[in-house]
Amino acid sequence: MARGKSSIGKTLVWGLLILVVMGFGAFGTVNFSGGLRGIGSVGDTEISVNDYSRALQNEMRAFEAQTGQPMTLEQAQQLGIDRQVLAQVVTNAALDDEAARIGLSVGDDQVAEALGQVNAFQGPDGKFSRESYSYALRNAGLTEAEFEASLRNESARNLLNSAIYSGTTLPDTYVDTLLGWAGETRDFTWARLSADALETGLPVATDEELQAWYDAHLEQFTLPETKVITYAWITPDMIVDSVELDEATLRAAYEERSAEFNLPERRLVERLVFGNEAEAQQAMDRITSGEIGFEGLVEERGLQLADTDLGDVTKGELGEAGDGVYALDTGEVAGPLPSNLGPALYRVNAILHAQETPFEEAVPSLRDELALDRARRVIEGMAQSLDDELAGGATLEELASDTEMELGTIAWNEQSDETIAGYDAFREAAQAVTEEDYPSISDLGDGGVFALRLDEIRPPAPRPFEEVRDEVAAGWDKDKTTEMLVAQAEDLAQQIAGGASFVDLGLEPMQEKTLTRDAQISDLPGGLLEAAFEMQPGETRALPGDGAALIMQLDAVTPVDRESDASKQLEGLLQDRAASSVAQDLFRAFVTDIQERAGVNIDQQAVNAVHTNFR
Fold first, then answer.
1. What is the CATH number assigned to the segment(s) 185-217+468-558?
2. Where are the transmembrane segments (predicted)?
């Protein structure tokens, strides 16, 4: 059965993907021998080894493109990529089998037209070139018959897909129901009853009650999987005290940073520039007379004080205005005085006196900085030899014994942040390490280095009751407080339902207006919005909070305004999403039906053979 040109156009997508595969020839086209052709079948349609192999290669390359990291088959299997690819090729085979059963295909003319539109198959004149076509397919390990058959199969699959997706329509009642559900809003009033509102004291929990609470909330006290890790590390701080610095080195550093230790007198200055001397003088006269202040002049010019700020400047940096500005006290204004932009008024905001730090006073800070820097260089110089010793078979214990590295052990999990676990580099290494890994030197990021070894993996396990007894008691107290407050809140809710107001009962009411089911209100306690959409207008309810109780009354239910622009946009969105969801369900049901009728057979040994060629 042949169909029109519209369906074959979609097969170009598949064809271009094949060409992408060709462009990654370095990855290798799997070459099978011994007569292995398929990894299974759906009905009478074989799932070829090459189809599965290329699809798996494509998915792995796509992952590599996203992460920028090479992917091994083992990693792909851990992520389930191989199973996803197998499911996809089985689905394709099912559609191919169904298309063959009902005689669905496209003609040679449409295939030829599609091939002519692929740039990689065109010659210098822009027309289809048999030589380019054959060359490209040879590089991909495909024959012309295989490729053209794949085009026909993909086209037939597209026709089946289109028949399902384009033919899916939903009744207006369905969309109207969704719109009414999503667009309806609620108005409600609520108040919080906190622990200080308890009318009776909190009872003291018995040991049995605490044990029962612990047992009921065991997940809160369960440690995640923990890795027992031995590590050796060295940081600049560990060896800084052993670094020796002579006076000549310190004096050279002091002289090099003289400007830092010996600062001249400076002023914090603001400058307002004018177009000419007369304007500047007129502005200065207004300040002198008290008519306006410096800030007022700045505002009149449409500027902000930040636009006039020169920061801290020396007398020499002010040029010809230096003497005049340096004669001012804090808060005083002088001018007109010259500037590189024209006559200006200057205001002094602070006087910074000269600071001179003698060599003897600068030595402590210089010594600390220079010693740390030298310690970093020492560690950098020894890192390679440390790594070589580990590669030669030295243990972490031997390394710590023979060098200044320190040995330690940590029970590490994702919550650990003490000592070396505070370093991102260590946490990343601890997350990735396996029992098969050998220790090697890695950077900590602050000039230090470390190496680690995984000794043991402990499965998730609860912390002992006695160890967490105080936490259990706090949790029990909070739950008991909530329970007692909810009992009080239920009585208050009944009074409100009987006509009393929140204020009459000493509560602080808060009102929420026109909230939809998916409203995001940051300070709204959990459970209120959900309850509002379960209640009827005028109904009151008491709800548990976190160590508190909540009292709410539903004030109004507002149906969706179907004529508003927002509702019309929401209607279109819901219609598209619902149709797409139903179409996907129909497609999955269709494929499942094909597979059940035709039968699916997977040769796991053949699949394993494909995987072997990836290693």
1. 3.10.50
2. 12-32
Q: In terms of C-beta density within 10 A (0-12 exposed, 13-18 middle, 19 or more buried), how is residue 56 classed?
A: buried
pTM of this prediction exceeds 0.70: no
Are 185-217+468-558 and 265-353 the same fold in CATH? yes
Separation between Cα atoms, residue 195 and residue 199, nearest integer Å: 9
Helix (H) or strand (E) holding 333: strand 333-337
Tell which phi-psi region holds residue 599, choosing left (phi > 0), alpha (psi between -120 and 50) or beta: left
- As averages over each run of 10 residues, the pLDDT of the chain (615 residues) reads 38 41 39 65 90 89 87 88 92 89 82 80 84 81 79 81 75 81 92 92 94 95 93 89 72 70 84 92 92 91 89 88 90 91 92 77 71 83 92 93 93 90 93 92 91 94 94 96 95 94 94 91 89 94 94 94 81 80 86 91 90 79
Long-range contacts of 58-66 (CB under 8 A, 24+ apart): 58/17, 58/20, 58/21, 59/84, 59/85, 61/24, 61/27
3-state SS assignment for residue 116:
helix
Domain 20-168+595-613 has CATH 1.10.4030.10: yes
Residue-wise DSSP of 57-74: HHHHHHHHHHHSS---HH
Cβ(168)–Cβ(581) below 8 Å: no
Which among 183, 146, 37, 23 has a CA at the least distance from the CA of 609? Answer: 37
Half-sphere exposure of 356 (CA within 13 A, CB side): 1
- Cα 445-447-452 angle, rounded to 5 deg: 65
User: Distance of CA 583 to CAs 10, 95, 269, 580, Å?
Assistant: 19, 16, 71, 5
Q: pLDDT value at position 615?
A: 63
Question: What SS3 class is residue 558?
Answer: strand
**Per-residue pLDDT, 126:** 81
